[in-house]
Specification:
By secondary structure, this protein is of the alpha/beta class. Among the domains are: about 5-60 and about 440-500, no CATH class; about 65-125, no CATH class; about 145-300, no CATH class. Helix content is about 50%, strand content about 10%. The chain contains 23 helices and twelve strands. Strands 1, 5, 6, 7, 8, 9, 10, 11 and 12 form a nine-stranded parallel beta sheet that branches. A three-stranded antiparallel beta sheet has the order 3-2-4. The two termini are about 25 Å apart.
């Protein structure tokens, strides 16, 4: 469990310190001793502090079992053939969702349809198609329970020793569709924006989004008992949101949602970023890819608050013509000026890939790497995955989950796969955890002197997370910076974790 902000800022901390962070070979030695022991390795990795999850879609992050329970509570129905959740009264061919609670065979059918459980590509439906099809099947459930979904995500994060999550979702989607329909499309982005902002409709939507978020966070806190005498550990997990925009629709809808994301970040500090989602190989996503990047570049020139992370390079030769593999990541970085990219699987097919990797390293553009998702959707697994290419080029890497409920995994599984399949060392895993907080869009200055440096800024150089000692000037930094506070908490938790293994025999 992460340290609480109050303990991290305790004025009663010891008054002696030392240079940090300390590199301790004891924990690294233990890690190597358990690397090939699955049970002991998972126990080690589960207990290791792992920072944050920067790439998690809220609608896909919760296990199918929980979604079935929500559907039953809502009195929904589930189509017996397609497994799609629909409203009551149950139409012909549908059963009450409650049946998926009590009927084992029906339950397993729904779980397999709503996730990658037991999926095998036998030449019919591909992993790619099965994965993306799941979302429309349980949409009627997830659309009504974002607060409960968020509580589930926070519980899993806390259980896996993560202290920060940055979920993706779209507030006020139907209202934004209505606004886009009333305005229509104008390729002159300046005029398009002016039309959308004329009158008060966009601002009404922004106000409604803030109220919607208030309600969802209240539901989240209530589900976890955060305001009771016995709050769950998940209450300590910090949450910020990225506004997600579907990339498979008409330009008028996409620009309207992008504008709403940038506007919302200006008015609500809980929204810190904008992202584009859905299948990158979809015909509309391919046709309009460069238009989408120009939209984001334009909005970045107008707004200064919202950060940008983009799904880019979630492609293979089996999905798209080779030409489409040559520019998506580069355009995301150079045109849309993305600060992070998600997936980045086809990086070596980009034009001048080594130059692109060098640019990412120089600009500190992080890549969010969901190993299981890449294997399930794209069939890019093991040595075919570019993870080690990114690491060799010194590109910041943050392991992430993508859709852990659909994939049937958690972040510990991603760290395990990085260890056993890709051969990462303990220090590389620790770097990934630190990167996840360094490149989080949560507000405030970093604890580190410079990105990737992992040496404390001058204010905190003589403070010590091993003892809890905080100088007054370091305390001032933490009080002014939610990001630095998260990082200090992580270093405190990490110091305790490493100390517990430093002299431990296998």
């Amino acid at each position: 469990m992460p340290s609480s902000p109050s303990s991290a800022l305790s004025p009663n901390a010891p008054t002696t310190g030392r240079s940090w962070p300390v590199q301790d070979s004891g924990v690294e030695r233990f890690f190597e001793q358990v690397r090939d022991n699955p049970a002991r390795l998972r126990a080690f990795l589960r207990s290791m502090p792992k920072g944050g999850d920067l790439h998690t879609h809220l609608s896909g992050a919760v296990p199918a079992e929980s979604l079935i329970a929500f559907a039953a509570d809502d009195g929904l129905c589930i189509d017996s053939t397609t497994s799609k959740a629909v409203a009551a009264p149950c139409p012909a061919g549908a059963r009450p969702a409650q049946d998926a609670v009590s009927d084992h065979d029906f339950r397993q059918q729904v779980i397999r349809a709503w996730s990658m459980e037991d999926f095998k590509d036998t030449g019919g439906e591909t992993g790619h198609d099965h994965f993306f099809a799941a979302f429309s099947k349980f949409k009627a459930v997830t659309a009504k329970h974002r607060g409960r979904l968020l509580a589930e995500v926070a519980k899993v994060a806390a259980a896996n020793r993560q202290s920060y999550v940055e979920p993706l979702f779209t507030p006020q989607g139907p209202a934004l569709v209505g606004l886009a329909d009333s305005v229509g499309w104008n390729p002159d982005l300046d005029r398009m924006r002016a039309s959308l902002l004329a009158g008060d409709r966009m601002q009404q939507i922004i106000r409604a989004a803030k109220k919607e978020t208030d309600s969802e966070l209240a539901e989240h806190r209530a589900a976890l008992g955060c305001d009771t005498a016995t709050p769950q550990p998940a209450c300590a997990v910090k949450v910020r949101f990225d506004f997600q925009v579907g990339r498979t629709y008409d330009p008028k809808y996409i620009f309207t949602e992008l504008l709403a994301g940038f506007e919302l970040a200006e008015h609500d500090p809980r929204y810190v970023g904008v992202n584009m989602v859905q299948a990158e190989d979809h015909p509309v996503a391919l046709r309009d890819y460069r238009l989408h990047m120009r939209m984001i570049r334009y909005l970045r020139s107008v707004y200064r608050t919202a950060h940008v992370t983009l799904h880019a390079g979630e492609l293979t030769e089996q999905l798209v013509p080779r030409q489409e593999l040559r520019f998506h990541i580069r355009d995301a970085i150079e045109t849309a000026q993305a600060e992070r990219i998600g997936h980045g699987v086809d990086v070596m097919n980009e034009d001048r890939p080594q130059q692109l990797l060098a640019t990412m390293a120089r600009r500190q553009v992080a890549v969010e790497v969901p190993l299981t998702s890449n294997c399930q959707i794209l069939e890019v697994c093991g040595p075919e995955h570019p993870l080690r290419r990114y690491l060799a080029a010194r590109v910041p890497v943050a392991l992430s989950t993508d859709d852990q409920g659909v994939s049937r995994i958690d972040i510990t599984d991603e760290y395990r796969q990085a260890t056993t399949v890709h051969g990462l060392t303990y220090r590389q895993l620790r770097d990934s955890a630190r990167t996840s907080l360094e490149h989080a869009f949560i507000q405030g200055r970093s604890l580190w002197r410079s990105p990737g440096d992992h040496r404390p800024t001058w204010e905190c150089a003589t403070s010590d997370p091993h003892t809890g000692h905080l100088t007054p000037i370091c305390r001032s930094l933490l009080l002014s910076s939610p990001k630095a506070t998260l990082q200090w908490q992580y270093e405190t938790d990490l110091a305790a974790f490493e100390a517990s293994y430093a002299t431990r025999a296998s």
